[in-house]
TrEMBL record:
This is Transcriptional regulator with XRE-family HTH domain. It comes from the Bacteria. It comes from Streptomyces paradoxus. Residues 18-72 form the HTH cro/C1-type domain. InterPro entries: Cro/C1-type_HTH (IPR001387), DUF5753 (IPR043917), Lambda_DNA-bd_dom_sf (IPR010982). One of its GO terms (molecular function) is DNA binding.
Amino acid sequence: MASNVNPTVRRRRLGQELRRLRELKGMTAEEVAERLLVSQSKISRLENGRRSISQRDVRDLCGVYEVEDQRIVDSLMQMAKDSRQQGWWHAFGDIPYSVYIGLETDAESLRVYEPQIITGLLQTRAYAEAIIRGGSPEASEADNDKRVEVRLRRQGRITADTEPLRLWVVLDEASLHRIVGSRPVMREQLEHLVEMSQLPHITVQVLPFEVGAHAGINGQYSILEFADAADSSVVYIEGVTSDLYLEKPLDVQKYTVMYEHLRAQALNVDQSRQLIERVAKEYAR
């Protein structure tokens, strides 16, 4: 799971460098697209790392930006070559949120707000199976099984012996009471949640019903942060047919402030754990 085998992060870093070269040249994405006879959207996708980039693309862009240092060109072309390698998740076929998995794999910390369900990294197998099958009733059993395995594989980031992902989760109280699978499944899930919340790198808070309207009322989102200063933070918002990635500093700042409000409005760690334990016992009746 090291970043040196993560094609998503390599594409992102390469895109950032290409954007920097364009801005140094004082050109807009539209001007570059006109020079290369391609669409402006292609230039934008290359720069935001959402699309594979070929060595030919890099060569052409360096030509437009008049990069004279061949060492820089060679370095960027090597990054393009490396970015076309496959991450571990590609072995599972077409995963809709593969870009997110690549970012999560390399992230140093992750902050999540979940209004409806227990977040994926803290799900048990039985709970994950019920969530995935319930959320994709039209999918084949094989496809749902694949998605379950991917979700469980992702959890390796928080159980790693060295440099585990720092995870902070704010759950709406509704996620504790929504019966996913069955009452025994929910009891197992909440007991697992309590156990995981005691790890030093994992923080779980519950936003109680009594708070009423709050800063996360518009829905789920995640904030990913990275150890490398060259990698800007990303806000991830999951969608049904497409996902949204926000990287502009003002956007990230807005969601960060919203998250701080959620943390302040939620029960503290001990109170949250007590509530989760209480609800878990209710499922045993």
